[in-house]
Amino acid sequence: MISYIIPVAYDYKYSYGAIRSIYGTADEILVGVDRDRLTWSKKPYEIDMDEFRSNIRKIDTREIVRIIEDDFHAEDHPMKNDTRERNILSAQCREGNWIVNLDSDERALNAMEFRDCLARQDRGFDVAAEFITVFKILGQKCLVTARPWERCPVATTARSAFQKCRTTGRPLQLSNLKILHFSWGRTREELVQKVANWGHAHDFDTMKFLQFWDGVNLSNYANIRNFHPLHGPIWPALMLLDCPKTE
Fold first, then answer.
1. Which CATH number is 2-242 given?
2. Mean pLDDT, rounded, for 25-42
3. Percent of the chain having pLDDT more than 90?
4. Cys-Cys with 130: which of 19, 105, 119, 149 at CB 3.0–4.6 Å?
């Protein structure tokens, strides 16, 4: 049995695509929305809850989605609030289920294969996936990070055990799951809002990196190497692909 937890805030419209990508394989989906409409950095955002609930109902034909409103901003650092939200949501998942993190700007590319894989995984280990990051959208094309792709913990059977973001401290095993992450694949306006509010808001010079992002184009992307803002080699290069849909 699989419980998905999806934190939602200013970029809530991306979450429709996230939910669709895993809906057929989920037993329950918990969507977190801060009750005071504050981000992990304690900045206000707007969300039309009537519209949001209506759009969720259109997707949720099996009535497995729950919207959880709680205080997800009480800590003094955005990463601590990131972790706090995941712990609050995971505590409300069905006991014994695999708990899988999927953020609103992420898409599971092979959710059914992943469900089969989880059934065979050792439940004493957490599970990691490969992340393919959409770095920039240029018209009908997009730039994504090239292999080797980033690996990130996504699933655990330990409820309310996250220590930092999706990490519990338990040993990891790699799964077959591939996730397309629209981390930087947004408009500039959306990026400015994101880097001011996400869990990494205080971890690096976000505005300097945004200036670097501004300068990446079809003429120079092939020359860019090892450019992840925290761990350079995680993103060794960029590839040009047809642009996927965000919803």
1. 3.90.550
2. 97
3. 77
4. 149
Q: Which of 205, 184, 180 is nearest to 194 (CA)?
A: 184
107 has pLDDT over 60: yes
Domain spans of the chain? 2-242
Confidence of residue 50 (pLDDT cuts 50, 70, 90): very high
Which pLDDT score is estimated for 198?
A: 64
Q: What residue has token string 């999706």?
A: 166
| pTM to 2 decimal places | 0.89
